Amino acid sequence: MPFNLLVLACLLYVAFLFAVAFVVEGRAARGRLGWLRSPLVYTLSLSIYCTAWTFYGAVGYAARSGLEYLTIYFGPTLVFVGWWWLLRKLVRIGRQHHVTSIADLISSRYGKSNTLGVIVTVLAVVAATPYIALQLQSVVLSFGVFASAAPDGSRPLEAGQIAVWVAVGLALFTILFGTRNLDAREQHHGIVTAIAVEAVVKLVALFAVGSFVVWGIAGGVADVIARIDAADLSAWQVQPGRWTGLIFLSAAAVITLPRMFQVMVVENQDEGHLARASWAFPLYLMAMSLFIVPIAVVGLDRLPEGSNPDMFVLTLPLAEGQAALAMLAFLGGFSSATSMVIVESIALATMISNHVMIPLWLKLRPGAAAEDDLRSVVLMARRLAIAIVLALGYGYYQLSSGSAALASIGLIAFLGVAQVLPAMLGGIFWRGATRTGAMLGLLTGLAVWAYTSFLPSFGPGAALAERVFTDGLFGMDWLRPHALFGTEAMDPITHALFWSMALNLLAFCLGSLFTFPGPVERLQGAAFVNVFEGSVGPQRWARGQVEPEALLGMAQRILGEEPALSLFQSAARAQGKEGFLPDPTPTFLDQLEARLSGSVGAATAHAMISQLVGRATVTVEDLMAVASESAQILEYSAQLEAREAELTRTAGALREANEKLTQLSLQKDAFLSQISHELRTPMTSIRAFSEILTEGDLPPEMVARYGGIIHDEAKRLTRLLDDLLDLSVLENGAVQLNLGLASLQGMLDTALTAARQTRPDRDFQVVRDLPAEAIYLRTDADRLTQVFINLISNARKYCDATRPELRIVVRQRSGRVTVDFIDNGKGIPKDSQTLIFEKFARLTDANRAGGAGLGLAICREIMTNLGGLVAYLPGQKGAAFRVTVPLRLERVAA
Amino acid sequence: MRRPKPPLFLARAPYRRRRLRDAARLLPVLGAFLLLLPLLWTPDSRVALGSGDVIYFFLVWLLLIGLAAAFAPGLSGGDGTDDEED
Fold it and tell me: In angstroms, what CA-CA distances link A117 with A110, A186, B56?
């Protein structure tokens, strides 16, 4: 087959994956995922467990070591059919605590310790780098199979070049679809679906090759069975220790591999999907391994001595002249490699950015939490981390230059990440597990793994001197890397598994038994272990001295403007308050922290909030108080609890109403003097000038001038009375609305033109988004325009910036349209924000701009009548008002 | 007022659900037993595996998948509160 055709097929396939991811992202953005959120997609996405190591390597494994390859799938099968034990709890914890990665889980469980997060991250990166290199190698090898089959024997591309292109392409794909949004809870639908498609391709390819081998080359099932018995395969001897050890190892790896954790826990959308995956995923694994032995046996039979059994899946169809089948097999292997690398690099990048880069950034710039646009910083960090991970994988590939050392790296990587197991299981089942214990266990496991398994994998004399292998470290015989403490009977991987796990567990247990956990740690421990009881909240913040506006600012910089505003609004409503600024109660701070940790990880979110709240460390006494408090709450019936919550809410509302009333009564006094003043000034001048006029004897031009003044003053009086009347009509709801279809853009145009008469001397910059304004509303256009005019005039009057600017932002959402008017002035002080909509509330007299202070009160009443509302929008670096109107006002609001 | 103690004996439906959960918990134990069994098939600890073993392993595998599929839908039933945990 021409090599170019192969490259073309490859590119087409990648383009197809891009298209799938792109279309799905688009659908997800419009909220129409439908069947894409099904358990099927979830199960298929789990199949990244089967990498190229499975696709190509399993046949080689079977050819070399018989049935042992099955152990790699037995472990995950046992874990999944036993999901009620462990996976269910993991997924629940992941959802409840907004866990972003396995490092985040460990760090969050042990008191949000970032040190632990860093240790797990380092471990994961070290273990995964060779594994990524292995995937690159498999792609290069499979290209090589086709290249050497080319008639002229020329190799159009060097191996290194292929590896570079693959690595760069994968980095691009991952960055494009893996870093669209920050919140790990906003899942990567595009990538997950692309992975699911690749899972199907893998399975179909392997099935096609398998069927061809069984029914095309061999003479059916019976013949294959005969060949198995005849083959050398049966000469392979099972070692009980290794068999058991590998089942345990693969079971451990399936929960601790960063990429498995990513698809299983982080991307999980519904716990019900797990129930389906509990049998469907083992079924997929079984299907994947069904044809491995036949392919291996027939391959050994048919292909010349010395051909690489790792490539049987490709070489067997090629040798039989089935080019199309070989191409399908090639795409299957390509899928296995790419999907693994994509998810692995997303998982690792999340860890690296959340536990290494962002904490460093915050440490280097202490004020950053309050100032910078963290959202883009985090996204940049994540993109950078993806590039770094792939560069590391490529670098390792180059360094080992595709040596045989790579082939055995799969199990070594499994063993590396499995070191997290004691800390993880201990963390979610044993409340006594402490941070020190976890740290000791992880470091011990890491050290033993590196010494007995990882470093020796480079070969004698490479990372460890040859002398160390024969005589032990520092010449101590009992420290030989493959025979620690003189245990020579085990093969290297079982030996490393046995000692690393045993010492890891020992250090973890001893460390936990002899240390005393900190308060945050104890709370987190209780919250994790008792996740199904839900009695203990995740964390308690002491009521801190913090401005909610500062919190809002920070939240906006991480979550984005709209999500942050709606989070704050709903929290405020739950407290019985209006507007966007809830009180910084412990409950609200917990809620906010949980949301933030979904984006930047638990440890960082915790650190950022404590920067603002000024830490209020929880003490053991607080903890005891919390404990006795929750014990008390248990004593009350559920009804009492509900009533208490209701009372608190009512009390909050009452307190707020009371404050408002007090201020209103002050306002009332001001109102009386204000209205008499407003009425008297024109009256006085009318009386004075009319007296002059009655005296007669005036030149006609004076008469005309005085008459004009009287007329103007009378007009001012009429306008004031009109406004008052308008207000009372609106307040009584007796207003007649003139409903019709009207263009929002037209209304804004009219309003801007009309408002230009207010302080025409000021040069005002208006920023609009015309396409967004192309909306037709069914409403009372005149009344709505009146509101717009009022808001724009206010901005013209009161905006005190030297280069005044007004931004008009229009958004449409679920049948409602919001129009924000944001200027760049000083804004309105917090105390006054609730008052501005009251009658005669004029904040400063610095700009004696005329008008009686009825404008916003009228606006509010109009919006109530139009079924919408107008509110002050805090945290916009200027005065900002949000007008919300229904897209279609169906009937006249009563 | 204390929260009422969970009842000592259960009605038929919740009872069955609990036993189903027990069965689901025991399934991996059964699986591990069946998958390790071939290690004991010969007096010597070293065994040669042939086509019969391949068929045995895939049958065990199918059995586990079938049982898990049979258990899965009933497990999450009920209101799923912790009162039902044990």
Answer: 10, 22, 43
Q: Is the dihedral of CA A563, A568, A569, A573 positive or negative?
A: positive
Helices (H), A212-291: 221-230, 240-256, 258-261, 271-290
pLDDT tens digit string along A170-223? 888 888 777 766 665 556 788 888 899 999 999 999 999 999 999 888 888 888
**For residue A345, what are the contacts with CB-CB under 8 A and spacing of at least 6?**
A132, A170, A171, A174, A178, A386, A389, A390
Instruction: Give the separation between CA A291 and CA A202, rounded to whole angstroms.
Output: 13
Please count the other Cβ atoms lying within 10 Å of the Cβ belonging to residue A399: 11
Residue of A nearest to B31 (CA): A78
Measured between alpha carbons, how far is A737 from A38 in angstroms, rounded to an integer? Answer: 47
Count of CB atoms situated within 10 Å of the CB of A425: 18
Which two three-digit tokens encode residue A223? 């013949």
| Residue A174 near residue A391, CB atoms below 8 Å | no
Tell me the C-alpha distance between A334 and A10, whole Å. Answer: 8
What's the angle, vertex CA A819, arms to CA A815 and CA A822, rounded to 5? 155
Q: Nearest C-alpha of chain A: how many angstroms from B16? A: 16
Q: What are the chain B neighbours of A246 within 8 Å (beta carbons)?
A: none
Q: Which residues of A touch B55 (CB under 8 A)?
A: 225
CA distance, residue A531 to nearest chain B CA (Å): 10
Query: Closest approach of chain A CAs to the CA of B61, in angstroms?
Result: 7
pTM: 0.71
Rounded-to-integer distance, Cα A481 and Cα A147, Å: 40
Nearest chain A residue to B49 by CA: give it: A234
User: Which of A80, A89, A86, A83 is CA-nearest to residue A283?
Assistant: A80
B72 and A275 within 8 Å at the Cβ level: the answer is: yes
In 3D space, the residue among A379, A386, A390, A385 whose CA is nearest the CA of residue A179 turns out to be A379
Burial A825-848 (b: 16+ CB within 10 A, else e): bebbeeeebbbbbbbbbbeeeeee
Q: What is the CA radius of gyration of chain A?
A: 36
- Report the chain B residue with the minimal C-alpha distance to residue A70: B57
CATH code of A740-886, in short, is 3.30.565.10
Count of positions (residues) in chain B: 86
Structure tokens, A113: 């310790």
- Determine the 3-state secondary structure of A882 from DSSP: strand
Tokens 């024109």 found at = A682
Provide the CATH number for the domain formed by A3-405 in this structure.
1.20.1730.10
Lowest mean pLDDT among A280-294, A437-451, B37-51: B37-51
Span A407-463, pLDDT tens digits: 578 888 899 999 999 999 999 999 889 999 999 999 999 999 998 888 887 777 677
ipTM: 0.85
Alpha-carbon distance of A872 to A832, in angstroms, equals 10
Task: Give the dihedral of Cα atoms A313, A317, A318, A319; nearest 10 deg.
Answer: 110
Domain boundaries in chain A? 3-405, 420-537, 539-622, 640-731, 740-886
CA distance linking residue A506 with residue A292, whole number of Å: 39
pLDDT at B82: 41
The CATH code that applies to domain A640-731 is 1.10.287.130
Give A-chain residues touching B39 at CB under 8 angstroms: 238, 240, 243-244
Based on the number of CB atoms within 10 Å of its own CB, is A448 exposed (0-12), middle (13-18) or buried (19 or more)?
buried
CA nearest neighbour of A871 among A812, A822, A826: A822
Closest-CA distance of chain A to residue B30, Å:
9
CB contact under 8 A, A238 and B62: no
Summarize pLDDT for A489-500 with one digit per residue, the tens: 778 888 899 999
